[in-house]
Amino acid sequence: MKYLENKVAMVTGGAKGMGAAICLKFAEEGCAVVVNDLDGAGAGVVADEIVSKGGAAVSNRVDQTDKSAVDAVTEETIKRFGKIDILVNNAGGVAGMNGVGPSGTFTMDEWQRILNINLNGPLHYMLAVIPHMKKANYGKIINFSSIGAFTPTVSVLPYHAAKGAIESLTMNLAFELSRDNINVNVIVPGNIRTPFWDNVVIPTDMTRDEFFDEIVKRQVPLRKMGASEDVAGAALYLASGMSDFVSGQRLYVAGGCPNVLTSAVLIKEDRLS
After folding, report:
1. Looking at 3, 138, 159, 252, which residue is catalytic?
2. Distances (CA, A) of 116 to 65, 94, 207, 216
3. How many CB atoms lie within 10 A of CB 109?
């Protein structure tokens, strides 16, 4: 018996990186997967790969800041599969900000744009899916935060503020939906090798690998960058029956951060062998 046999999952940001890895992992475990992304072509590639391996998947191009579009794709999924057991709110990012955003460097329009992507977008999906989960008296909602929301190592104020709000939203919905047998949890990724880093400006005197090596030395107690597959494993746990008694929790996938951040400081200073 596979962990997600006969389940249906909707995954946002499924075209690449952590989202794609989650889609593929869920499909391996018997889940029908709805791959949603603003990059419709990329989402289609992931869905086609699942189908080529004998799984069930469809793809949709969706702008999650458009509530009507989210509502429409949710209803389409219900018509096709009859239910939505799992929602993974992975989509987000800092597109157009070049990975920066200290106070005083952005306009309020820019602030609102980033909040629309990273806070309102996931909320649109939850508001669309929750009524169907309530009707089924079952559901697993997995949101995504960022380790920078509460333990920042760089200032990306709009993004980190939105992710902090996502954590609050997660805890409140876990409380609200507990009597409906709906589990709501949040994954907090650390430094994971994904296309997210394409928007980060790398110093001109460093290669990408050198940049990652420096991050590892300064910030990651386990002394390695994470992989999208590491996050997919955590998502599988929260989506499956293994976590039926787990709700309102943060699951850090961050190489030891933030709880052993002191160790990272010691590593940086070469005081820990």
Report:
1. 159
2. 6, 11, 33, 31
3. 7
Tokens representing 100? 């920066």
Helix (H, G, I), strand (E, B) or coil at 89: strand
Closest by alpha carbon to 67, among 111, 140, 120, 24?
A: 120
Sheet bearing 86-89, strands edge to edge: 57-61, 32-37, 8-12, 86-89, 139-144, 182-189, 250-253
Task: Verify whether residue 252 is a known catalytic residue.
Answer: no
Three-class secondary structure of residue 226 per DSSP: strand
Residue type, 37: D
Q: Are strands 139-144 and 250-253 parallel, antiparallel or unpaired?
A: unpaired
Task: Tell me the one-letter amino acid at 14.
Answer: G
pLDDT range class, residue 199, cuts 50, 70, 90 = low
Nearest in space to 196 (alpha carbons), one of 98, 93, 42? 93
pTM of the model: 0.90
Alpha-carbon gap, residue 113 to 177, rounded angstroms: 29
Write the pLDDT tens digit of every residue in 31-68.
999 999 999 999 999 999 999 999 999 999 999 999 99
